[in-house]
Write a structure and sequence with these properties.
The chain is an alpha/beta fold. 32% of the residues lie in helices and 16% in strands. It has one domain (62-179, 186-299): Rossmann fold (3-Layer(aba) Sandwich), CATH 3.40.50.
């Protein structure tokens, strides 16, 4: 599993199968830089302005060990083995998330986490088949509830068509959030962006459509998704085939891509092999949880 930003990449699948990791840590969103700007006064022409006293640097408070995690899963027909593997091994993710990474002092336990499962398909194909293109669920706080959400997913339809991942990412990234200073939280909303790290984990065996169809972003493309992902402080982790589009998605700030690829296998066969070994996939989820632990730190705004 490729690590979240500012971490050392752990090992993933069998090295002989040649998996590749791509990650990026680009400059922060322009809006965040503007928040840190200072007001500068200018003296009238002809008058010298006295030098201001040196001000002590202001440190923003940080929230550590708090995270909201969304598992965004392709639920077209070929994804059944991956969904089954996630359901079987999700406890390993939760246990590592709650315990932290003993080998890394910076990966403290996530003391307060919520997670949920969201399934997505090709919008047009789903409409023709009479199924929902997006299956959303509320945030929960225990492994049993998360397993129940995974069990409720039905991998069906879609064939080998590109799926509507960009639409799904845009929808999740722009999900409503609790207001600043809120004393309560809602299971259908992100927590305020300074109160909890926001992580989206994608599992898919297909390419994605380059143009969005949802009304709020109709005609939009990957750059529009990148904008809302960064503006809403989403940490993106993708498990996907070696298709060109995922290389571009991985360039979004604080994103990572685990290429699921085996020589001689199709994208669908590769993901099935990746998830078919219970011990190996359990290790992958533990590494993913450790990455989330290292990333569960936010700066107050």
């Amino acid at each position: 599993m490729a690590d979240m930003p500012d971490s050392t990449p752990p090992s993933s699948t069998d090295a002989s199968d040649s998996t590749l990791r791509v990650s990026s840590d680009l400059p922060p969103v322009a809006g965040e830089a503007a928040l840190a700007s200072e007001t500068v006064s200018v003296a009238p022409i002809g008058q010298a302005e006295p030098a201001p006293p040196m001000a002590a640097p202001q440190m923003r408070s940080k929230t550590r060990g708090v995270a909201d995690v969304v598992f965004l899963i392709d639920v077209s027909g070929s994804m059944a083995p991956c969904i089954d593997a996630l359901r079987t091994n999700i406890e390993a993710f939760i246990q590592t998330l709650s315990a932290g990474d003993p080998a890394n002092a910076n990966a403290a336990a996530v003391r307060d986490w919520r997670a949920k499962v969201v399934g997505y398909r090709d919008i047009e194909v789903a409409a023709g088949e009479g199924v929902q293109w997006l299956e959303d669920q509320p945030f929960v706080r225990d492994a049993a509830a998360l397993k129940a959400q995974l069990a409720a997913l039905r991998a069906e339809g879609g064939g080998d068509e590109p799926e509507s991942l960009l639409d799904a990412l845009y929808t999740v990234a722009t999900m409503d959030a609790s207001p600043k200073g809120s004393q309560s939280e809602e299971p259908g909303k992100w927590r305020y962006r300074s109160d909890a790290a926001r992580v989206v984990v994608v599992f898919t065996d297909a390419s994605f459509k380059e143009t969005m169809s949802i009304p709020q972003a109709k005609g939009g493309a990957l750059q529009d998704v990148a904008n809302v992902v960064m503006a809403n402080r989403i940490i993106l982790s993708i498990f996907a085939p070696n298709f060109e589009g995922y290389d571009r998605l991985s360039q979004i700030d604080k994103s990572e891509w685990e290429v699921v690829e085996y020589e001689g296998l199709s994208a669908q066969e590769a993901l099935q092999k990746f998830t078919s070994d219970p011990a190996n996939f359990r290790t992958t989820l533990k590494q993913l949880a450790a990455s989330v632990s290292r990333s569960a730190e936010t700066v107050a705004l």
